[in-house]
Write a structure and sequence with these properties.
- The chain has 321 residues and is an alpha/beta fold.
- The protein folds into two domains: 5-122 and 304-319, Nucleotidyltransferase, domain 5; 130-298, Nucleotidyltransferase, domain 5 (2-Layer Sandwich).
- It has helices at 40-60, 96-101, 115-126, 178-181, 183-188, 190-202, 220-228, 232-256, 275-285, 288-292, 305-319, and strands spanning 5-11, 15-22, 27-34, 67-72, 75-77, 82-84, 92-94, 109-114, 135-140, 144-150, 153-154, 260-264, 295-298.
- Strand 9 and strand 10 form a beta hairpin.
- Helix 6 runs antiparallel to helix 8 and helix 7 (220-228) packs across helix 8.
- The chain is globular, with a radius of gyration of 20 Å.
Length: 321
């Protein structure tokens, strides 16, 4: 069945985005809402309200919505319809498919996919990976995860967890916190870098740099700004992150032999300026023949990759009817 419009929904741990999207990838009535409360049922209420607003706008414009694609955070099991998204309280083994069906108008065909997989669909449809059959989408933001495309198929894994890149181990030294977030996420995600920076400041009594005044309000933008000012702690933190990002990508390249690695997430962004240094680090560690055929690029979709991918999912599913 050929359709002209779908509804795309991108659920994240702090906000939801909703838009009507046409078959050319153009947006209509796009809106984003941050949650005022982050418990599971209150998040659902916010999602419901945004879907209702966009659906009403579509109806007023004479657009009929029959298919919807939904990108969800964490681990989504499309057999059970359950989600594990611990950053939203109450969303552990949460019956997300059952709950989402209640939020849409009757007879809407709803299709759900994990955000890392939606990012793959977004990049291959409207982004930097059109026509690509083997690629990695690496998201580096508050957390770290990867979408994996191998021979044109999205890898999900036995438990639908393939792509848990935050657990990439790059040192034999073990820290108990690695059990819950993994080595790479602890050392090189946005949340991890902020925590490590605070620890360094607190354990450097002679430090008088620009980050000292930030206190508990310190965030990643502060660290990037301090790096520009040649702050010693910011330089140390970001240099180590570049090393870990490059090493992790090298491991993925050697394992999967992709044609492209695309980096996105809230840090890229500001960290796009370090792509050439990440490439240099990646080149030290990659299998040499794999290295010859791969490119490393930032996303061109900004923070919209998973929303675009959700729309693509709905269009794909409409063709299977």
């Amino acid at each position: 069945m050929m359709i002209d419009y779908v509804l795309a929904v991108d659920i994240r741990s702090d906000a939801v985005s909703v838009s009507v999207v046409n078959k050319d990838g153009e947006w209509y009535f796009r809106r984003k809402k941050h949650y005022s409360e982050r418990t599971g049922l209150q998040v659902l209420a916010c999602i419901r309200d945004q879907i209702a607003i966009v659906n009403e706008q579509a109806r007023d414009a004479g657009i009929a919505i029959r298919y919807a694609g939904v990108s969800v955070p964490g681990i989504y099991n499309d057999v059970t319809g359950e989600i594990w998204a611990p950053n939203i309280p109450g969303w552990r083994k949460f019956p997300i498919r059952e709950k989402l069906i209640e939020l849409f108008p009757p007879k809407t065909s709803i299709h759900i996919m994990a955000d890392r997989c939606c990012c793959i669909l977004g990049e291959t449809w409207q982004g930097n990976a059109k026509g690509i059959k083997n690629m990695i989408y690496l998201h580096i933001g508050a957390g770290i995860y990867a979408g994996l495309l191998v021979d044109g198929q999205i890898l999900r894994g036995n438990d639908h967890i393939a792509g848990a890149a935050g657990w990439t181990a790059l040192s034999p030294s073990f820290h108990p916190e690695y059990r819950t977030i993994g080595f790479l996420e602890y050392h090189a995600s946005g949340n991890g870098l902020v925590k490590i920076t605070k620890d360094l400041i607190n354990n450097a009594p002679g430090y008088e740099g620009v980050l000292l005044s930030k206190g508990e309000q310190l965030n990643m933008q502060d660290i990037f700004n301090a790096y520009k000012e040649r702050d010693t702690i910011a330089i140390s933190i970001i240099s180590q992150a570049i090393q870990f990002w490059g090493m992790a990508i090298a491991n993925m390249i050697s394992l999967l032999n992709p044609e492209k690695v695309i980096i996105g997430g809230s840090l890229f962004g500001p960290a796009t300026q370090f792509i050439s240094r990440i490439r240099e680090e990646m080149a030290k560690w990659s299998q040499p023949y794999c290295l010859k055929s791969v490119s490393l690029e930032p996303t061109t979709l900004g923070g919209s990759g998973s929303l675009i991918g959700a729309a693509r999912l709905a269009f794909i599913e409409s063709l299977d009817v």
